[in-house]
Amino acid sequence: MKTIRYIIQKEFKQIFRNKGMLPIIFVLPLLQLVILSNAATFEIKNIKFSYIDNDNTSFSRALIDKFEASTYFNVVSNFPSEKIASSAMLKGDVDVILEIPNNFERDLVKDKKTNLSVIINAIDGATAGVENVYINQIVQGFNKNALVELMQPSVPIAIGITNKPKSISSITSFWYNETLNYKTFMVPGILVLLVTMITLFLAGMNIVREKEIGTLEQINVTPIKKHQFIIGKLFPFWIIGFGLLTIGLIISKVIFDTPIVGSLGLIYFYTAFYLLVILGMGLFISNFTDTQQQAMFIAWFFVVIFILMSGLFTPIESMPMWAQYLTEFNPIKYFVEVMRMVMLKGADFTDILPQLLKTLGYAIIMNGLAVWSYKKTS
Amino acid sequence: MKRFIGFIKKEFYHIFRDKRSLFILFGMPVAQIMLFGFAITNEINNVDIAILDHSKDTYTQEIINKISASKYFSVQQYIANESSIESVFKKGKVKAVLVFENDFSKKLIKENLAKVQIITDATDPNTAQTISNYTNAILQNYQKELNKNVETPYQIITQTHMNYNPELKSVFMFVPGVMTIILMLVSAMMTSISITREKELGTMEILLVSPLKPIQVIIGKVVPYIFLSVINAIVIVLLSIFIFKMPVQGSLFLLGIESVLFIITSLSLGILISTISATQQTAMMISLMGLMLPTILLSGFIFPIASMPLPLQIISNIIPARWFIIILKGIMLKGVGLLFIWKETLILIGMTLFFIGLSIKKYKIRLE
Amino acid sequence: MVSNNIIQVENLTKAFGDFTAVNAISFEVKKGEIFGFLGANGAGKTTAMKMLIGISRPTSGKATVAGFDVYKNPDAIKKNIGYMSQKFALYDDLTVKENITFYGGIYGLSRKQIKEKTNQLLEELGLQKIVGELVGSLPLGWKQKLSFSVALLHEPKIVFLDEPTGGVDPITRRQFWEMIYKTAHNGTTIFVTTHYMDEAEYCDRVSIMVDGKIEALDTPKKLKEQFKAKTMNDVFLKLARG
């Protein structure tokens, strides 16, 4: 125990003496938390909307007014022809083109039917789908209004008496996040990401660094035990992980006003185990590498894949089944889930028990492998 | 010149001797493209939902059938009362609960109006909103079927054309992004590390006192990475064409030229990082923390730039990846020529010159 | 017999695949002597030494160090030896005092012992003034002396020195050897590898390794007689040429 203390002391001194790294460890990630949480949103706003009005009647203008009034759309241009409009879309100046045909109003009155043509830039398929929904909502709303206006003089309430349409009305309620604030969702996730990346990279490079500068050999001829050395080496990064988490939670509360419904104690309890997984992984990587460059590169490879498969940015349930099974092996996924469940929904110990157990299992396996592969002799 | 070629050879040896790094260098793009192509999507599918049916009659059953039949939802469980909603949400088992009111059919027949409540777990606002939209669409369709015999006059029908990506495949959006990020990180990170490594080991001084000019030393360090990045770019393009059937509408030649331009931009950024960092560790941390997340998040790769707050939209202008993604989408999906992307191209050239200029300045200061 | 030999090696061998780095060497080192372990670069000196200090497992053969078996008891060996490697092994980003405290701590010295040792050591080396400076900022010669002192902190029975004087000036080398004599005089056994043949003259006994084998082992004086050479350098050249 006493021996471990000396190693820990030494590690902390080295970390805090490196003036170049300190801001990278503490300031950069938190700055990113602030900036990137604002960037990560799938909300679709400010859609660049343009139109070609071939009808040019008060009726067609009324439709365009509806788009002007919507908060989703920014009406940017009125094009005289489809050709010019298409070229604007190629340049990326517009996202949506609405073409109102000749005799738009006349057809509706005479034939009781009229067409509108919509062109959407669909490179981002998901966004295009949502844009399509918004456009249809506006057009349907406009259609309903027009219906009332057009029907009033000519057709009295005749239809209603004989055969009134059945309707199903729906009300949506948004629990835990009534204002649909996207930051509430992203902040806990990005915090997870930063805690993970920093601790993994630092732990992964740490032992390799001693290998590279030759001090590891010196340590290996001392009577120090394997487990003492490993615990002493990793403990400081465990503390740093907690430090990052704490500062991050303060920022999410103060700057983003993210709700923390559940117990903070539970978050820290879970994190204690999660960090073990990450540190074990870092140690494992450093056992199999000779230079810091290699260690960093391998850590990076896995982190990127883990992030992408964590449900942080894109939903896991939309993935095909085989990919969903793969995510079961992803520790970042569990941390993201736990943070969101506890912070936003107030989940308690029993709710996160499955995640906790899996993380614990992972921690045992990872650290077992790491200790097993760490050799004092060659 | 002969000396210079010898020097470049040495750099290649360094790279090819390190099998693990080499594996990652080439494995990374393949793994990412595969994941984005086959696994990751920002669409919402197969959302697990629960049903709370207070009336359990033919109408509600029909609606439930419609909902389970859709690809968007899978009915995960039936719950018996309001109080279990909270607990299924907390366990994270379902993302939404549909609540049918009492006497649904009776009300629908007698009063022509029945109510459904859609309760969503809005911790993920995007999914919640989408669930609400999809459920409403299903309900609307069902309502239309019910009212078949009721004539609805005065219809405005919209015909939608999904340009450039008619099947709305999300891989079309991800490929340009993945390619950009890989090229950026590989080029910038690898060069910055390999140059700082020589600095740290003291071998840089030896190179600088050799008859090679400093500029030759830097170019020599960079050439192998240009070569590797070009191979990576080719692999990514081939994979996206042959496996994901992604079209390259525009000119392959232009695509090649623009890719090389972007690789050079990234390399010059890597050189700049190496001039400001003293140790490999610092260089790595700057490349990873300072480049990776901003490049993923502020480039329009996953999240639309237009939806970001204005200050971030302004910041996104200085991210080289943003411009290259526009260029890639333009050439590959829209089939445009230089005429449409000259502005983005000029911006990248400008950035490259800026990074190189700044590096030379920093470098001179250090020598004096 | 055993009590007088602090290191006993019989047919010790280390092979890396097809390559045999150390080929069945046998020798013993007596308590309190300065034993020179000589050989050209790549002759297998460092590999042999690493087996003796317990960080490399022998392929075959027997060896005991300070009475402990290298297979069964490497941890017990480690408590009884000091080691100074070819590479400089103190932390550049810790101060002189912090380095001493750290190594003292992991060898299990008490706080009081560490404090006493630190003061004693700094006085001997004349380093009191720079005790708070980062080791990275010291000149190489001082670093080497400091490394040697740190290897002696826990008062080991044997100290292994792997080319301790590589890259330092002649004056520092002299000073360094004076430290070695002093240490040996206090009863500590010294096991030193070097490829400076003039240093071999300072040893009580030397062995010379060529291509993984020990080709000669005796006092410098007897070796010179045996090979009819004037200096150890000539002895070595004759051996190396075969």
Q: Gist?
A:
The complex is a heterotrimer of chains A (378), B (368) and C (242). By secondary structure, chain A is an alpha/beta fold.
Textual characterization of the structure:
The complex is a heterotrimer of chains A (378), B (368) and C (242). In chain A, 46% of the residues are buried. Chain A is elongated, with a radius of gyration of 29 Å. In chain A, α8 (182-213) packs antiparallel against α12. Chain A is an alpha/beta fold. Chain A is built from 15 helices and five strands. Chain B is of the alpha/beta class and 368 residues long. Chain B folds into two domains: 2-40 and 169-367, no CATH class; 47-146, abc type-2 transporter like fold. Helix content of chain B is 68%, strand content 10%. Chain B has helices at 2-17, 19-39, 58-69, 83-90, 104-110, 125-146, 170-201, 203-209, 214-242, 252-276, 280-298, 310-316, 320-334, 338-367, and strands at residues 47-53, 73-78, 96-100, 113-121, 155-163. A four-stranded mixed β-sheet of chain B has the order 2-1-3-4. In chain B, α2 (19-39) runs parallel beside α9 (214-242), α7 (170-201) packs antiparallel against α11 and α7 packs antiparallel against α13 (320-334). The radius of gyration of chain B is 28 Å and the shape is elongated. The model of chain B has no long low-confidence stretch (mean pLDDT 84). Chain C has one domain (2-241): P-loop containing nucleotide triphosphate hydrolases (Rossmann fold, 3-Layer(aba) Sandwich). In chain C, 37% of the residues lie in helices and 27% in strands. In chain C, the strands form two sheets. A six-stranded mixed β-sheet of chain C has the order 6-7-8-3-9-10, sandwiched between helices. A four-stranded antiparallel β-sheet of chain C has the order 2-1-4-5, with helices on one face. In chain C, α3 (96-106) crosses α4 (111-125) and α5 (140-151) runs parallel beside α6. The radius of gyration of chain C is 18 Å and the shape is globular. The model of chain C has no long low-confidence stretch (mean pLDDT 87). At the A-B interface, α2, α4, β4, α6 and β5 of A face α2, β4, α6, β5 and α7 of B.
Number of strands of chain A: 5
Order of helices and strands of chain C: EEEHEEHEHHHEHEHEEHH
Count the domains of chain A: 2
Tell me the helix content of chain A: 55-70%
User: Strand-residue fraction of chain A?
Assistant: 5-15%
Report the helical percentage of chain C: 25-40%
Rg for CA atoms of chain C: 18 Å
And the CATH topology of chain C? Rossmann fold
Mean pLDDT of chain C: 87
- Summing up helix and strand content along with how strands pair, one would put the structural category of chain A as alpha/beta
How much β-strand is present in the residues of chain C?
25-35%
**Silhouette of chain A:** elongated
- The order of strands across the largest sheet of chain A is 2-1-3-4
Largest sheet: number of strands, sense, barrel closure of chain C: 6 strands, mixed
Number of domains of chain C: 1
CATH architectural arrangement of chain C: 3-Layer(aba) Sandwich
Total number of helices of chain C: 9
Q: What's the CATH class of chain C, please? A: Alpha Beta
Q: Strand count, sense and closure of the main sheet of chain A? A: 4 strands, mixed
